Amino acid sequence: MYLATVIDLYSRKIVGWSMDETMKVSLVNDALKMALISRNPEKGLIWHTDRGSQYASYEHKDLLKRHGIIQSMSRKGNCHDNAVAESFFHTLKTELIHHEIYHTKEQAKRSIFEYIEVFYNRERSHSANNNLSPVEFEEKQKLLQKEIAA
User: Fold this and answer.
1) What confidence tens digit (pLDDT) does each residue in 29-48 have?
2) What integer pLDDT is reported at residue 149 of this predicted model?
3) Which parts of the sequence belong to the Integrase catalytic domain (predicted)?
4) Domains with residue ranges and CATH for the chain
5) Which of 60, 130, 134, 146 has CA 20 to 30 A from 54's CA?
6) Range 48-54, long-range pairs (CB < 8 A, 24+ positions)
7) Nearest Cα residue to 14 out of 88, 81, 82, 68
């Protein structure tokens, strides 16, 4: 199974994700579409990815263009350019995947859904967020913005 994610760099929230049996353009496009529905970003959003062929495809570039998204790809052979995504996948494997045995694809999908939507986004603390979960961090930031505007 392959998992594609869209991570908000500010809060570390997984705002879009998709799973499939093959790594293809539709996998990453589905994750991005989920994020677009979730966030409805303004034009000029920067979308940073690795150099995988699915991200360089015409179909993917067309999706970005239609939504006014600027593509940024990591440098060849430099995993540090995509460190937040690399860190998420390391965490997912360390905290979940290496501790589970999945007997069916549906079982794996359900487990990863629960990890992302229930645990990772809502409960798991992040040092980049002052040890708040992504959802808690975003809620706190909204309150601070309201206080500043008042």
Assistant:
1) 999 999 999 999 999 999 99
2) 84
3) 1-142
4) 2-83+102-149 (3.30.420.10)
5) 134
6) 48/9, 48/72, 48/73, 48/74, 48/81, 48/82, 49/73, 49/74, 49/82, 50/74, 50/81, 50/82, 50/85, 51/76, 52/23, 52/28, 54/23, 54/24, 54/25, 54/27, 54/28
7) 88
